[in-house]
From TrEMBL:
This is Integrase/recombinase XerC. Keywords: DNA integration, DNA recombination, DNA-binding. Residues 7-95 form the Core-binding (CB) domain. InterPro entries: CB (IPR044068), DNA_brk_join_enz (IPR011010), Integrase-like_cat_sf (IPR013762), Integrase_catalytic (IPR002104), Integrase_recombinase_N (IPR010998), Integrase_SAM-like_N (IPR004107), Tyrosine_recombinase_XerCD (IPR050090). Residues 117-304 form the Tyr recombinase domain. PROSITE patterns: CB, TYR_RECOMBINASE.
């Protein structure tokens, strides 16, 4: 139990609290910051070197405390970073007020979480339900967006910047589409070519027919109702509508479609080098680190099968 009342009139904590209030910090944030500063004060005083005084604290003291939180208290990276952020705010304010000569936390960095987290993806049941919903609604633009995201693995910025000239279609003698490719300029201006699945080809052609009827004159493939180039926020609003209808949680994003694309290819036997090339990753190592992490269901299946 943190004895906030014991410390609030010491170490300028009352004034620090007023500063946080004046900067429109929430009640929860103020409580967290004050408690974390008090925890550091108690840690320092327990060291029995000298009594806590903001002016005597050094960067080494902060780094030692961070190490203590990590190795002795075994706190998570996020919990440690919150404690350090609280101290950085406190010492920064002390410097602004002229109480200390130098902000000793200015060069203290956040800890990085070395764990690679499983990317959020659709399971097959959710993907099928989502696809069915898009097609049942029957909006050709939305279907085109859905197919490009889920079967090309595009980033949001790549999607909104697609131009008609980036789409290459080959037709047979009957005028039917035989194959197609998408030429994408991705991160770092890196070029990649993505072969188009038949569903993507069909969705693009259906949307282009609608464009022609509306007499849209723009080099960009995806154009809003107001005949403007789409923004990433505009794409997000569209997919959010479908996610809400299926009552999906807010963690599903535009990038979830890209994760689904990559995970599905790997799950079905595609080699990592090919998936890396399609996704625009620098190497297959990056692809492997991200998309070969088993999800919770896969881990559970292994336990049930092999134990």
């Amino acid at each position: 139990m943190i004895k906030r009342d014991k410390y609030i009139d010491k170490y300028y904590l009352k004034e620090f609290k007023e500063y946080l209030l004046a900067n429109d910090r929430s009640e929860k944030t103020i409580k967290t910051y004050l408690d974390n500063v008090i925890l550091f004060i108690e840690y320092f005083n327990d060291m029995e070197i000298e009594e806590f005084n903001p002016a005597v604290i050094t960067p080494i003291d902060i780094l030692d405390y961070r190490s203590y939180c990590q190795t002795i208290l075994n706190l998570s990276v996020s919990s440690i970073n919150i404690r350090i952020a609280s101290l950085k705010s406190y010492f920064s304010w002390l410097k602004i007020e002229g109480i200390i000569d130098k902000d000793i936390t200015v060069n203290i960095k956040k800890l990085k979480d070395a764990r690679i987290k499983e990317p959020k993806s659709f399971d097959e049941k959710t993907y099928r339900a989502l696809r069915r919903l898009y097609y049942r609604e029957g909006n050709e633009l939305h279907i085109c967006i859905f197919e490009l995201l889920s079967k090309c693995g595009l980033r949001a910025s790549e999607l909104v910047n697609l131009k008609l000239d980036d789409i290459k279609m080959n037709f047979n003698e009957n005028g039917d589409i035989r194959q197609g490719t998408l030429e994408v300029i991705g991160k770092g201006n890196k070029y990649r070519s993505i072969p188009l699945h038949k569903d993507v080809r069909k969705a693009i052609m259906n949307w282009i027919k609608i464009r022609k009827k509306r007499k849209i004159n723009s080099p960009y493939l995806l154009i809003s109702e107001r005949k403007d180039k789409f923004t990433t926020n505009g794409i997000y609003r569209i997919i959010k509508k479908y996610h809400e209808k299926l009552q999906l949680d807010s963690n599903y994003s535009i990038h979830t479609y890209r994760h689904y694309f990559c995970r599905t290819l790997i799950k079905n036997g595609a080699d990592l080098s090919t998936v890396a090339a399609l996704a625009g990753h620098n190497s297959a190592v990056v692809t492997s680190q991200i998309y070969t992490i088993p999800n919770e269901k896969e881990k559970q299946d292994v336990i049930e099968k092999f134990l």
